[in-house]
From TrEMBL:
Listed GO MF terms: hydrolase activity
Keywords: Hydrolase, Magnesium
Species for this entry: Allosaccharopolyspora coralli
Keyword Hydrolase tagged: yes
NCBIfam families in alphabetical order: HAD-SF-IA-v1 (TIGR01549)
GO biological process, one term: small molecule metabolic process
Classification via InterPro entries: HAD-like_hydrolase, HAD-like_sf, HAD-SF_hydro_IA, HAD_sf
Protein name: HAD-IA family hydrolase
Cofactor(s) recorded in Swiss-Prot or TrEMBL: Mg(2+)
Amino acid sequence: MCLDIDDTLLDNAASSRSGLAALVGHDAAWPVWRRTTDEHYARYLAGDVDFDTMLHERTRAFFAEFGELLTDAEVARREHHRMCAMQRAWRLFHDVAPCLEWLHASGYRLAAVTNAPGGYQRKKMASVGLSGVFDAVIISGEVGVAKPDPAIFEIACAELGVPSHQVLHVGDRLDVDATAAVRAGLRGVWLDRSGVPAPRQTDVPVIAGLDELPEHLVCDYGVEHADPPRSAALASAR
Ligand SMILES: [Mg+2]
């Protein structure tokens, strides 16, 4: 089983909104922040800029949208303030710990597959109690390929020691996670946490929360339900 991290296990959107609120006093500009993030994060994933440069240029571009042209020193000061506020707000979704316990108790080998810099993402995982939970941690910044490239899923399957057709990947992005996993020969599940009961024209199964994952596995793949014991690593997850 492969799991994405951001907005699948960890509520990255909520922590990012907290960071934005620390930056400007409210999060009403969230749509602008999100659009600016999408543009700049794509440049980081493409290898055009390093992560710290991306953070700096994103914050500069965000304020420029509102006509405020900042010096490098002021961008750095505001970005540091935002980053600290965001990191204080890192939290797992409430359905994560029970799901991980069930997966462990059911005998799944688990891999995290995530697009981010290695040190940053490992710090984030440690801060929410995810260190030691996974059998393999595949971070794009460490392996040199990012989702949706099939190569990152192939690395995950190899580290798990499980053939790709027996591996299921769950993530919050239909294109980058679920569909990309299917293209790499895995099974893909789209975790759509939006809560919007919109018609879903997808070729992959959709769940609205991780509490639905065990039932999905039992019904679709015949996995027997386990009575999960608590593990020390998961008990510390919050
Ligand atoms: Mg994600």
